[in-house]
User: Which sequence fits this backbone?
């Protein structure tokens, strides 16, 4: 009984508004830091990315009251804009955790539209930054690029995870549109052509009527 009470109290603290406000204030402080060496600021940005990713995606996105997620996602976008390393670290860490399965679950299986949309906003912002950071690797379709790895994962999710969640596809599909739509360059679009995205998307839309349909899949 004592252990159960302790567990309840811990969970009550973790899911409290005070906890989320405290976390958001830490991220705001990191975003306004101007003192310290470049290396110190880099470490602080990486710390902020790690804290925000864990709190926003692992905790807040699953709460009934997830309003705090909006402020955290905004803070993470600011961190991404300030730090290339934090941007790379975010997607790299998500891929290392079961090949970004958690991100795809939030984009496609989460019943809450706000969590799906905010997750999509965050991923879209990160991918758009990575188009510049990993430009050469993306053009080579090099698997060393986290953006390439994630977009491969997105395409591979079409036939299974996406097909099973057809009423929750909007934000997931918007990521493909954003990836291919770049006013400054055609990096994403060239990558999509190189990886036969149009054929794969048509195959997904046509389902069993597709000439690429395979009953074994």
Assistant:
């Amino acid at each position: 009984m004592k252990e159960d009470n302790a567990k309840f109290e811990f969970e009550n603290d973790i899911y409290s508004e005070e906890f989320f406000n405290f976390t958001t204030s830490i991220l705001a402080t990191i975003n306004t830091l101007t003192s310290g060496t470049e290396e110190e600021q880099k470490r602080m940005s990486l710390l902020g990315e790690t804290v925000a990713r864990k709190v926003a995606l692992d905790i807040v996105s699953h709460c009934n009251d997830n309003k705090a997620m909006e402020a955290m996602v905004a803070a993470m976008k600011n961190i991404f804009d300030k730090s290339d390393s934090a941007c790379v670290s975010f997607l790299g860490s998500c891929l290392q955790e079961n090949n970004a399965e958690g991100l795809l679950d939030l984009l496609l299986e989460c019943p809450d539209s706000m969590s799906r949309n905010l997750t999509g906003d965050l991923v879209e912002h990160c991918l758009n930054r990575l188009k510049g950071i990993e430009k050469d690797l993306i053009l080579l379709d090099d698997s060393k690029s986290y953006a390439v790895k994630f977009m491969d994962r997105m395409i591979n999710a079409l036939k299974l995870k996406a097909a099973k969640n057809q009423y929750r596809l909007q934000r997931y599909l918007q990521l493909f549109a954003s990836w291919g739509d770049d006013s400054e360059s055609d990096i994403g679009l060239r990558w999509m052509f190189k990886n036969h995205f149009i054929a794969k998307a048509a195959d997904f839309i046509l389902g069993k009527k597709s000439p690429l349909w395979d009953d074994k899949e």
User: Anything to note?
Assistant: The chain has one domain: 2-209.
